[in-house]
């Protein structure tokens, strides 16, 4: 029994036997439901005629802790009934869900209007056009309407992308009452089932939650004049993608197919390399991190070096007197790999090597999460340890090129990414850098100063090289292909004529702390570096690294759901955000942190937890400063005895640590004014 049926029955004033009264659907949830149903159709490009939809499953209708619901939409008997073929691999499915989520949120942002009419089922059918009426099942009506009589009342809502039958009173006036819709992922949540679990029909299940902008927005009254524009119903009766997100996915699918075809032709002509199926799932490149990461193998593949005890000792010697000891990320091997760090430290020890640090961030969401903090916390420590200048690149240009959108009506969203730069800058500044030695810049703003070096890099790198490294092809926009040079440029001191008082004769060496997925950029950079520094005069010492930047690489910070891959901002439950409240932190860790503990108390006491896969323990390794305590927690939990014997105890400790860390961050961040951000982002000399 569903809310909708209950509402219809209540209106009829009669109670059928099968009726079990469920709580009424919270208004925000039904608004989200309407938008998402429209979004599914618009993204997949499926006609209203081909689909049938379950009303929201009552067990999933929740108000607390968040407004949430779940429904399934059957989009036909076979795969690819709409314009967009439903994908078969998990990653593409995930992307489709993201597309649907984006489409629904686009409607919110655009303030899409809801209109509704109440009429009879018969009239509704003729209103929708004869084609609709002759071809059930109709996406418009739910299963319950199949059984109702022609003269029974029905309310139709028209939500831009969709027309559908809904409960008699509409929950909200406009989509603007909602703040955001989130499509939930992972087990038991949203899913696209086709060709799997031996399902033949293609079914999309959406589990979602919403947040409200106007909790008490007025409820809309449905009108009784029969007006639903016929043109829109005609459009809705075609198998046609009706949204920008859907079009993007269609294009991506076409490109993928073309690539696959090309690869297939290649395969028949060139012998395949020896295959190692076991490692196949690991993918690490500048755009994608997935599968179980084998860091030793990665270092081998990338050609970087593992950090050694000896090297750490040398680092400690160089930093002596400025920091009490090695950062916990080094003590615990979170930063684990490098390029040319030996040489860099040697030069520094010989007192004739000056250095600067370079790191960056692609501003892709307004709330950063804990994973984003890792490189910055470490960079701050390095700045203290070396007492040197630091430049931080905000690649708003990159994020626009890769994730930006163009909309016929609203234009593009380049400014959105420029604004994210400022928001993210606040979080970065709150990490505690030294103002006198730190320059933060937005590419959109500063790129002109680096332009001579960018042009030199463009000249030195071929399209084939870039495509090979980053997987671009002829269908990629030209900005993507040009971008790697822009991330490369800050590796050269001469890109900062004022900030570092440098030109091409500068001997100042660059060290880049970054996550290992950024390495491809800098491999490319290092290959052409010699062309960007001036040849030394005969009596002069050359640049200590022949112009190349040195690197120090971190591992990935694991998502809450499990220690593979990296955390994503699009799945709110996979991450702790720097804006989360203490309650949210507690809830997420309790509900979502993947546990390596055993099923029963008895087993836990006998076997102890598997620390490798236990996210709470792994996160403590990143954030708990106290070595002794960490050691004790590991021993207790790993053996199932002592104070920290169970998952609950370990989670409680983690919650405490993170609540404190996040609260302190928020306090620091709150004090940073726009004026302050502007100062950090003003070009000024950081040296002598
Ligand atoms: N491309 C990086 C990202 O998407 C941002 C970045 C630019 C960066 N320059 C960097 C990261 C240097 C590390 C080091 O987040």
TrEMBL record:
Residues 251-271 have a biased composition (Low complexity). GO terms for molecular function: ATP binding; tryptophan-tRNA ligase activity. It is an enzyme of class 6 (ligase). SUPFAM superfamilies: Nucleotidylyl transferase. Gene3D superfamilies: HUPs, Tyrosyl-Transfer RNA Synthetase. It is found in: Cytoplasm. Residues 247-280 are annotated as: Disordered. Keywords: Aminoacyl-tRNA synthetase, ATP-binding, Cytoplasm, Ligase, Nucleotide-binding, Protein biosynthesis. Its main location: cytoplasm. InterPro entries: aa-tRNA-synth_I_CS, aa-tRNA-synth_Ic, Rossmann-like_a/b/a_fold, Trp-tRNA-ligase. Its EC number is 6.1.1.2. GO terms for cellular component: cytoplasm. GO terms for biological process: tryptophanyl-tRNA aminoacylation. Belongs to the class-I aminoacyl-tRNA synthetase family. NCBIfam families: trpS. This is Tryptophan--tRNA ligase, cytoplasmic. It comes from Seminavis robusta. The lineage of its organism: Eukaryota, Sar, Stramenopiles, Ochrophyta, Bacillariophyta.
């Amino acid at each position: 029994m569903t809310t909708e049926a209950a509402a219809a029955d209540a209106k009829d004033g009669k109670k059928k036997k099968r009726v079990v009264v469920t709580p009424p659907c919270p208004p925000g949830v039904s608004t989200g439901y309407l938008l998402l149903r429209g979004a599914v159709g618009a993204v997949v490009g499926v006609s209203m005629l081909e689909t049938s939809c379950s009303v929201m499953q009552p067990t999933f209708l929740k108000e607390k802790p968040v407004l949430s619901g779940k429904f399934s939409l059957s989009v036909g008997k076979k795969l690819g009934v709409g314009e967009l073929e439903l994908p078969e691999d998990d990653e593409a499915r995930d992307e489709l869900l993201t597309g649907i989520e984006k489409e629904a949120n686009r409607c919110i942002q655009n303030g899409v209007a809801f209109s509704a009419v109440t009429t009879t089922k018969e009239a509704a059918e003729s209103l929708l056009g004869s084609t609709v009426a002759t071809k059930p099942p109709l996406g418009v009506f739910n299963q319950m309407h199949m059984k109702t009589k022609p003269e029974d009342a029905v309310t139709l809502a028209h939500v831009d992308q969709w027309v559908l039958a809904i409960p008699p009173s509409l929950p909200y006036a406009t989509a603007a009452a909602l703040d955001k819709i989130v499509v939930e992922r992972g087990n038991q949540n949203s899913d696209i089932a086709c060709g799997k679990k031996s399902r033949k029909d293609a079914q999309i299940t959406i589990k979602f939650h919403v947040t409200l902008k106007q909790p008490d927005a007025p409820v809309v009254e449905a009108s009784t004049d029969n007006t639903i524009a016929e043109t829109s119903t005609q459009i809705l009766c075609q198998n046609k993608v009706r949204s920008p997100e859907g079009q993007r996915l269609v294009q991506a699918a076409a490109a993928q197919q073309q690539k696959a075809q090309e690869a297939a032709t290649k395969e028949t002509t060139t012998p395949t390399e020896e295959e190692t199926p076991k490692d196949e799932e690991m993918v690490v490149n500048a755009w994608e991190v997935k599968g179980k990461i084998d860091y030793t193998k990665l270092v081998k593949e990338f050609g970087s070096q593992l950090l050694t005890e000896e090297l750490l000792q040398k680092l400690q010697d160089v930093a002596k007197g400025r920091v009490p000891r090695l950062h916990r990320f080094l003590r615990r091997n979170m930063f684990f790999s490098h390029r040319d760090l030996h040489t860099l430290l040697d030069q520094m020890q010989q007192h004739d090597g000056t250095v600067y640090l370079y790191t960056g961030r692609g501003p892709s969401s307004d709330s950063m999460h804990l994973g984003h903090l890792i490189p910055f916390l470490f960079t701050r420590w390095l700045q203290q340890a070396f007492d040197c200048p630091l430049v931080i690149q905000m690649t708003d240009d990159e994020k626009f090129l890769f994730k930006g959108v163009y909309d016929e009506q609203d234009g593009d969203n380049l400014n959105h990414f420029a604004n994210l730069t400022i928001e993210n800058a606040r979080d970065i500044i709150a990490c505690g850098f030294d103002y006198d030695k730190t320059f933060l810049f937005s590419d959109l703003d500063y790129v002109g100063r680096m332009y001579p070096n960018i042009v030199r890099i463009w000249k030195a790198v071929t399209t084939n090289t870039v495509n090979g490294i980053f997987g671009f092809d002829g269908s990629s926009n030209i900005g993507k292909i040009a971008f790697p040079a822009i991330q490369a440029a800050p590796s050269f001191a001469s890109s900062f004529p004022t900030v570092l008082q440098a030109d091409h004769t500068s001997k100042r060496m660059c060290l880049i702390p970054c996550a290992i997925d950024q390495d491809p950029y800098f491999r490319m950079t290092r290959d052409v570096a010699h062309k960007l520094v001036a040849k030394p005069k005969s009596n002069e010492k050359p640049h200590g690294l022949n112009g190349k930047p040195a690197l120090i690489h971190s591992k990935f910070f694991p998502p809450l759901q499990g220690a593979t891959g990296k955390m994503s901002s699009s799945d709110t439950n996979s991450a702790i955000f720097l804006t989360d409240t203490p309650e949210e932190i507690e809830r997420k860790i309790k509900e979502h942190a993947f546990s390596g503990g055993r099923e029963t108390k008895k087993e836990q006491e006998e076997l102890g937890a598997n620390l490798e896969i236990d996210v709470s323990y792994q996160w403590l390794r990143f954030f708990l400063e106290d070595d002794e305590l960490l050691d004790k927690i590991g021993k207790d939990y790993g053996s199932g005895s002592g104070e920290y014997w169970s998952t609950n105890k370990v989670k409680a400790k983690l919650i405490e640590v993170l609540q404190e860390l996040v609260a302190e961050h928020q306090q620091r961040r709150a004090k940073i004014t726009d004026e302050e951000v502007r100062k950090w982002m003003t070009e000024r000399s950081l040296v002598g």
